[in-house]
Amino acid sequence: MLCTFHRAYGAVQGSSLSWRGYGALRRCPSAWGLPSLPQCAPLTLSFCSRGGGKGKSRGPEEAEAAFSSVTVTEIRQFLRAKGVPFHDGYSCLQAPSPFTTTTTTDPGGHRETCSLFIDKTTGGFVCTESSLEGSWRDLQDCLEVMQREGRQSLGPDVRLEAPDSDRELAERQEELGEAQRVWDRATAFPELPADTARSVKAAFGMEKVTEATLGKLSVRYCQASGSLVFPWFGGRDSGLRGLKLLSVQQEGDRLEYTATTLPRAGRYHNLFGLHMLSRKDTALVLTAREADCLAVSCSTGLPCVSLPRGVSCLPPPLLPYLEQFKRITLWLGSDLRAWEASKIFARKLNIKRCYLVRPGEQQPCPLEALAAGLNLGKIVRNAVAAGHKSIISFRQLRDEVFGELANAEQVSGIQWQRFPDLNKLLKGHRKGELTVFTGPTGSGKTTFISEYALDLCIQGVNTLWGSFEINNVRLAKIMLTQFAMQRLDDQLEKYDEWADKFESLPLFFMTFHGQHSIKSVIDTMQHAVYMYDISHIIIDNLQFMMGQEHLTVDKFSAQDYIVGTFRKFATDNSCHVTLVIHPRKEDDDKELQTASIFGTAKASQEADNVLILQDKKLTSGPGRRYLQLVKNRFDGELGVFPLEFKKASLTFSAIKGKVRLRKVKEEGQNGPEQPGKSADAKGKK
Predict the structure, then answer these.
(1) How many other CB atoms are found less than 10 A from the CB of residue 643?
(2) pLDDT by residue (tens digit) across 396-443?
């Protein structure tokens, strides 16, 4: 963990000591020792990591400590104990920043001069004036040092983490330089010839967005790449921090849009339109696309910003920039995924101040509404409140029920691209569900579930992997091979190309391995859902987690408790949890059933879906591996289809042939054979 400050020539405890000489940041060399300094170089305080090492990533214990939960009550108590004035906001506590000089001139801590925002959920902080970010532990250490040394301010030069490697710094500088070069080459819309401006707007479907609006929001056009250039500024008084380039190509009868960010997505988050907000604004419209932000601004003149990654994520470091608004209207799109994202983001922003635009024929996305001549101001005013009482009537549910009936395909969830037969059975991957997956030892459960999750992740499903049985390096190697659909060990020259593509996926890994308590796992999952808007979590597997909790009760009761905890987590956080459970020992010549899942019936009862990877290759030769759906709470469709494993790419695929998918009915119904009972077996009976 980041813990302590060092001054002058104090002992170096870790890897992130840094200092400034004549205003230029100097960093420790590769030896990570404490080098000599010029006599005239003024020193500033800097964090160091406990332990040695060359800026290595945190180990599992440190990572778990970094994500340790903190309550808002504990945050308030600590600030009061340190004499720090603060204001209670919607999603953050606002206090004077120790990383600026404002504190010395405004000891009273008026809200207008408070630039330090502390997240109520995680304790992480953002200083909007110095753009400094850190964890709750970091802020505690800062305030401890200030109190001990009688300081009023630490200044903006404090380092809160190990310095980047030379390679990372060079890459970041190159990306920022490239962003500046693209920005300088691009042409502002008011400076474009009228014919060119009209053709560009038509190509991007923005015919009704005025040049004045495009100019006001600083949108430019890059003729070299044929892209619209949307800038990200650091705030009202900050310079260029990044760009998003939007290009369009004709694909048959439809237009295909491609977005590119500089720096790369994930390195920096910002809101398009942030620089246009005034301190006096109290209402805001939040959109998922820059084009929608332009439409709202053009039609209504209301303050409006757009998210950097659309409906996939609302990064917590952006919450401080939205803290001043008493009313936030979320208008994220026209489909069910946008509606679900609106409800999730409203929880982060504080549900009491949020209003949602429900998708419908008369309420499409803002750009389509503008093109259709609809009254965007009226749509914003008629947005429904996100908060609701504990008891409601059908009147409040009526529109949502109609929306599910009218959008049956979207309600079914995300479709798998590599497993079309699975779509015919499960219909899709839906948030808020619990899937239990089992199969014989050595049948390829981890390999299959890896591709199963990768398929969804490629389509934008934010995914968190908890691999308790195999380490993350081995798991990432499997997934990278499946992603590339080829082995890379004999063609290493292609590694960087595929690794760069793989790195852009919304994929995260827990650092746990082996046995861990359910509390630490749930805390990490909760942190990931809040920070990265995770919507799919894989736990592989349940048995490896057991052993540290409920030591005084039997293992079946402990397993039931853990399964119930995952069930509640999936429901409360609108997150799909896939839980891998080993089966109990069965004879090799018998197919697995629902009752074969290790433990009591709790797992199959709590699960929305139960999948079994059947494997008969040991008894009847190859080609007898297939996936069986034995429980489907969504619509009751059950069935089984064969799989073929391709060793070269570590992927599974359905066997091509006349008979691929066999649907079955639930037990107790007359019809096709029961799950797990083959037609041959019935004939013998």
Answers:
(1) 21
(2) 678 778 877 887 788 889 999 999 999 999 999 999 999 999 988 888
